[in-house]
Specification:
Strand content: 25-35%
Largest sheet: 10 strands, mixed
Number of strands: 15
CATH class: Alpha Beta
Shape: globular
Radius of gyration: 18 Å
Length: 269
């Protein structure tokens, strides 16, 4: 695999700002290094078993069997954050509105501000019709952990040690506390400050007839071209990052990200 050394650059990005369309400059299988330390990796295509699980999870997500949080928004081709030439290229494509949907699995941290000062598990786990989706995501998490063990053995060892502080009942597989599937959501610039420092996230991408939806890390001027059935393993607590606009190239085009994350809120509870 190619080695990519991440070198810090100056930028003016701020948390909460939308990310404009940026052509990817990371498009090959690679391991990311920062300060001479391997901190993550990107594969343009996962092993076949993982691809089949991701296909199954995506299909179940898109069915009526899985309850979802839903909202509608104007298509990305009409967003000001999209580049003018991109808008021009896709302005005659069908589909004026697209749905943004999300599903959370695993553990949900305490939220005293909304009068829920206790941790809980996602209610989706108790929905009978969602069983296949939940099982596919759990298996995908386990396969992701094995991939981390193979490619970044030191990271796997570190995350295993960090998770000795997490009670088994709050784990989603072994190295994560939860999962979120984000359908057509271009996240603005943010830092995952609630994550366990030292641990990594996993982002698996499902793309169909769409362009964009790539992760941009301004600290390194890196835009990772997240292809269909690609996997990105990265410490999301480390840097501000955002997602470029998702632009359907045909009617029904979408981008769905299947994410596994490690929250520090479950330490010692």
């Amino acid at each position: 695999m190619k080695r990519v050394d991440l070198i810090k650059v100056e930028h003016s990005r701020k948390i909460g700002e939308a990310c404009e369309y940026i052509e990817p400059n990371v498009t090959e299988d690679c391991i990311f290094y920062a300060d001479r330390e391997a901190i993550g990796f990107y594969l343009t295509k996962m092993p076949e078993k993982m691809c089949k699980l991701a296909d199954l999870a995506d299909a179940e997500f898109n069915s009526k069997r899985v309850p979802k949080s839903i909202m509608n928004r104007a298509s990305a081709i009409n967003q000001q954050s999209a580049r003018p030439d991109i808008i021009e290229k896709y302005k005659n494509k069908k589909g004026g509105e697209v749905s943004q949907m999300s599903v959370i699995l695993g553990s949900i941290p305490p939220k005293p501000m909304v009068r829920r000062p206790y941790a809980s598990r996602s209610s989706v786990h108790s929905v009978k019709s969602a069983e296949i989706f939940v099982k596919a995501m759990l298996l995908l998490a386990k396969e992701s952990e094995e991939l981390i063990r193979q490619i970044l053995p030191e990271q796997h060892k570190l995350q295993t040690e960090l998770f000795t502080e997490i009670n088994d009942k709050w784990k989603f597989s072994n190295l994560f506390t939860g999962s979120i599937s984000n359908f057509n959501i271009s996240a603005p610039f943010h830092r995952d400050s609630g994550n366990i420092v030292g641990a990594v996230n996993v982002i698996i991408c499902k793309k169909h007839n769409s362009k964009g939806g790539d992760l941009h890390i301004p600290d390194y001027d890196a835009t990772i071209g997240q292809k269909d059935n690609s996997i990105l393993v990265y410490p999301a607590w480390r840097n501000v990052h955002g997602v470029t606009p998702i632009i359907p190239t045909h009617e029904g085009g979408y981008r769905n990200s299947l994410i596994f994350y490690p929250l520090k809120a479950f330490k010692g509870i």
